């Protein structure tokens, strides 16, 4: 599945205040990395941030849970970012930093 270029550009514009990050193509999607830790991705048409038990309640407030991989009985610890958060660059920056910290911590395990 190809990633919509306009959507990708929108996400990257919204993340500008987050600072430096790398973008890599991955399995039909896009991975967002900082310090070699993947903190976010565009998967199956949506921007998602890395999550864990500490951030899951933030996503749950918007009815979002871990990513259910289509056609498979598995989930991934990436949560779709609600549109309200995507629209607010300052709040998105906070959420992205939290996702990055989670990604760094999971790399150390």
End-to-end separation in angstroms reads 31 Å
CATH topology: Yope Regulator, Chain: A
Order of helices and strands: HEEEEHEEHH
Residues in β-strands, percent: 25-35%
What is the alpha-carbon Rg in Å? Answer: 13 Å
CATH architecture: 2-Layer Sandwich
Sheet with most strands: 6 strands, antiparallel
CATH homology superfamily name: YgaC/TfoX-N like chaperone
Helix content: 25-40%
Quick recap:
With 109 residues, this protein is an alpha+beta fold. It has four helices and six strands; from the N terminus they run αββββαββαα.
Provide structural commentary.
By secondary structure, the chain is of the alpha+beta class. The chain has one domain (5-108): Yope Regulator, Chain: A (2-Layer Sandwich), CATH 3.30.1460.30. Helix content is 37%, strand content 29%. The protein is built from four helices and six strands; from the N terminus they run αββββαββαα. Strands 1-2-3-4-6-5 form a six-stranded antiparallel sheet. The longest helix is centred in the last third of the chain and has 20 residues, at 89-108.
How are the secondary structure elements laid out?
Elements: H1 5-14, E1 22-26, E2 29-34, E3 37-43, E4 46-50, H2 56-60, E5 66-68, E6 75-80, H3 83-87, H4 89-108
Antiparallel strand pairs: 1-2, 2-3, 3-4, 4-6, 5-6
Features:
6-stranded antiparallel beta sheet; single chain; 109 residues; alpha+beta; Yope Regulator, Chain: A; 4 helices; globular
